[in-house]
Amino acid sequence: MLKNIKNPFLRIGIISLVVIGGTALLLVLSIYLGAWGKLPSKQELSDFKYQRASEVYSADSVLIGKYFLFDRQPIQYEEVPKNLIEALVAIEDERFYDHSGIDYKSLFRVAFKTILMQDQSAGGGSTISQQLAKNLYPREKSGKFNLALSKFKEMIIASRLEAMYSKEDILMLYLNTVSFGDNTFGIESASLKFFNKSARELELQESATLVGMLKATYGYNPRVFPKNSLNRRNLVMQSMYSNDFLSQKEADSLKLLPLQLNYRDYDYSEGIAPYFREEVRKQMLNWAKEQREKGLDYNIYTSGLKIYTTLDSKMQMLAEEAMGQHMKALQNSFEKSYGKRAPWIKDQNLIKKVIQNSGPYKKWKKAGLNEKEIMDSMNLKKEMLLRDWNQDEMRSASTIDSLLHYLKFLNTGSLSLDPKTGAVKTWLGGINFKHFKYDHISQSKRQVGSAFKPIVYTAALEKGISPCTYFSAQEVAYENMEGWSPSNSANKDEAYLNYSMEEALSKSVNTVAVKVLEKTGIPNVIDQAQKMGIETTLPALPSLALGTAEIKINELAGAYASYLNHGKSVTPFLIHRITNEKDSIIETFKPVVAEKRAFSEETGQIMLEMMKATVNSGTAARIRSTYGIKNDIAGKTGTTQNNKDAWFAALTPKLLNITWVGLDNHEIGFSSTSLGQGANAALPIFALWLQKLNADKSFDHITKAKFPNPSSAVMSNLDCDPVKRDGFFKRLFKNPKKKKTKDFKTGNTKT
């Protein structure tokens, strides 16, 4: 046939076309057969999984956080508004419903403009199905030849997708996988991030904004380039008019609307309960590891798990408000109390230690810099954001300035739970997760001070010591303890006074607590603590009565719960159940409650009455006088030596709360006991929170709950004068200004 063509140019042209066509056909065939990399089979396409963010929900069904590599929350076709689908088709693939994965008309148009007319703005000609193929199987290599290979692969995959899925399915597969920038994948996550609403709630102009981003997720990001985004949004709406999805009047009217975002970034450091979410994340990582050991493959970042927690989101928000309200005022008082003599200003040894223990110092030391070079680097000023309770602000500051700025911040840990089950209701691990990652509930061990005394008194009651037993408040120097002489915090003359156990506990009398410990026996007290769920190794010393043991908040909370749970301690837990992306249950978690009682019912009732006295007339009385709270409450304050740790344990019929306040650096304490005592530094967080709960009727089942009446036997055992004064002859022969000296009876055997 070619012999009959006499024109040599025509013959060469035809031969060239045949060669090019044949080569292209062979190339496509080789791609189809997998010579340039395996193509997904129809089976794989019908069973593919894309990475899904795992979601964390509160007990009241509020989404409080996500764990993800790529922020993605797949949804169904019925959950997407019609205007979003129309906007997508209008701007991205106007013949979407007419082709079978490849829009040949558009493809030839692009090829003609690009190859023959050298028009670089001709576009890509890719259909939504082809874009989906690219999303599902990202291109791995660059270069013109590899780009052509990728295009052919995507066309083949697109055709297979079209043969297997309906148009609605393809749209949703695309919308659930496409990137919207800001590490966000999928329309639901994008809608929540940019407009703080579910995709089903998007208005037309909002849908057009999100769809407009798909051409260039950074260049048309409405947060970064609002003007570009607005123009692109309006172009999308014009395309909707061109494709008969909008009238010209509707399009013109909508174009006049301003671009309004309600940006909500799922920044791990921001949002509700960040410390709680971090603890859940750690527990979930351990859970996933255990599942892998069983042969089950779950990844908290990609498996789309739903994690249903015990947290009450409303209670948590109110707790965070109360904490911020109190800690801001306390921080101001704390800094004023020190003034210009503050340790972070004057204590050069402390400052040197803080600098040398810091990450930057150690990094530069490891890099081989000498002391002068390190200090020069750490003193270099630059613009940085420094957090303050009043306001965060940009300042010219050095690394050392930053270290000393954050050194002075008071911190807190506050945990509340259901005392019957251990289900955590609120979790405040610190004042600000972004700047203070250390969680004071699950990680920090601090001396518990007088918050340990109830355990001492419980052990005493269990040994048979009557609550009406009187103990002298006189200070004693214990010679076999190197002259150790515990004293009381008040300036009150107590040499002639003898306190009942109830009065001594409610007034937190140190001298009596040590004598109760001595009479009970240290081993018996330690044994009692262990029965109540304390796993920390306790010091077998007389100072144990004053709370020199360092215990975690969650551990102490589990022990205190026994006073509200018939003597049975609990283990605080955070997760109710875990489900897959379809909400089918994978695992549920049951409360961990001690099998045996740690003490008798009578002992529990007596202890509760004694701790009620602490709130009604003792060291925690300001909860009544200052905050006007009338709820049924029992409690115990705690303050450690040198005012470094302040505690308050609050017990209500249906809620237990443990709060600690102090500084992260153990070398700094409050300047005075009046400021740093538990009643002033820790109690107000609970009191302010309870005020907020009282004001909300939805919490009436908790706030209006009443303690059961104690038995007549218990009331009879407590029926004694709180204080007895030494008799005349005893006073006559006692020198109140002279300490009594004796050996402390260690009681090395349990009874």
Q: What secondary-structure arrangement, pairings included, does this model have?
A:
Layout: H1 8-32, H2 42-46, E1 54-57, E2 63-67, E3 71-72, H3 82-92, H4 104-116, H5 128-136, H6 144-164, H7 167-177, E4 184-185, H8 187-195, H9 204-213, H10 226-242, H11 248-255, H12 274-293, E5 306-309, H13 313-338, H14 343-346, H15 348-356, H16 359-366, H17 371-378, E6 382-386, E7 393-397, H18 399-407, E8 410-417, E9 424-428, E10 446-447, H19 453-463, E11 470-472, E12 476-478, E13 497-500, H20 501-506, H21 510-520, H22 522-531, E14 550-551, H23 553-560, E15 570-571, E16 575-579, E17 585-588, E18 592-593, H24 601-616, H25 622-625, E19 634-639, E20 645-652, E21 655-663, H26 673-676, H27 678-681, H28 683-694, H29 700-703, H30 712-717, E22 723-725, H31 728-732, E23 740-742
Parallel strand pairs: 1-5, 3-4, 12-23
Antiparallel strand pairs: 1-2, 5-16, 6-7, 8-9, 8-21, 10-14, 11-13, 13-22, 15-18, 16-17, 19-20, 20-21
Helix pairs in contact: 3-9, 3-10, 5-6, 5-7, 9-10, 10-11, 13-28, 16-17, 19-21, 19-22, 19-24
